[in-house]
Amino acid sequence: EGGFIKVVSPIDDTPAYRAGVKSGDLITALDGKTVQGLTLNEAVDKMRGPPNAKIVLTIKRAGVEKPLEVPLIREIIHIKVVKSRMQQDNIGYVRLSQFTEQAEPSVREAIKSLQAKADGRLKALVLDLRNDPGGLLEQAVNVASDFIDQGEIVSTRARRPEDSSRWNAKGSDLLGGLPLVVLINGGSASASEIVAGALQDHRRAVLVGTRSFGKGSVQTVIPLPGKGAMRLTTARYYTPSGRSIQGLGITPDVEVQASRNEPPHFGPEREADLKGALSNSGGTQPPTNQPRTDLPPMVKDIQKLPPENWPAFDAAKPETDY
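Above: the chain sequence. Below: its structure as C-alpha cells.
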C-alpha cells in the first residue's frame, strides 16, 4: 500500500506476533533498507531466511510519531489455527485464527477437549473470530455446521442464475444448544463473516465486538495459456436471510470495542474503503432485518468501552482482553 508492506494481521504464536507487530502496521524497511521499489513478493523473499537468523523491521504505526525498530528471530512457522482454554464457571473459549484445511477438525477437537475438562458440564462457548482473515469456503460451511442442525449456511449469486450455489448445514450441534458467543472485529473477513452471519441469522449465537471487514465476493481461478491463471471475481456471498456481506460486513448484536481509543488507520480499513470495491447489491438491506428479541437481559449491562484504567492488552494475559 503506497509502496509499503501493510500487515493485515499477525499470525498467532509467530515471531512477529510475539514481537508486537499489529494489524495495520506499515513495514517501511528491512534491515535498514527501504522496501520502496520492491514488489510484495520481493519483500517477502527478503523477510524470509534461515531459522534463528535475525531481521529488523522498520514499522510506521498509526498514532506513533517515530518509526519503530522491531527485531525478529526467524523461525519455521507452524500454523496452529485453533487455541482453546477453559474460563471460569465452565465456559469454554476457542480461538480460530484462519480457515485452513484443519479449521473444522481442530474446532471439533477443541470442543471435545473442553467438554472433557468440564466433565460434561460445559455451560457455554465463546468462539473468537477476531482478526481471522478467512480461508476455505468449505471449512466455513463445516464450522458453521458444527453449531447449526439444519438450514442454509451461505449462498452465492452470480451474473447467471445457473452459476449460483447454496450450502446447507450438514452436521449436528456439537454443543447441544448451549449458549454461544462469537467475537468479531474489523479484521474478521470472508469465511469468518460467513460463519458469523449464518450463526446470527439462525439466532444460534450472540455476536459481540465491532463490524467485520466486508469481504463478500467470490473469486474463480481461470487457467490461461502458458501455465498462467487469472483470479476473477464472479459472485457475491449472501447470509441465510439474504444479506450481502460485500462492503457492509456483519454488524454485531452487541458492540464492544477492545480499547477506549481505537487507533487511526493508514489507508483503507475495510473492504468498502478499497479503490474499485464492489458495491453491496442484490440482497436484503439491513433496515428490513428484524431486530433480535432473544438477547439475554445481561446485554443491557455490557459497556461498549473498557473502564478508564483498563490494562493494555497482553496476549499472554487473557484477563487483559476486554
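Residues 20 and 70 are 8 Å apart (CA to CA).
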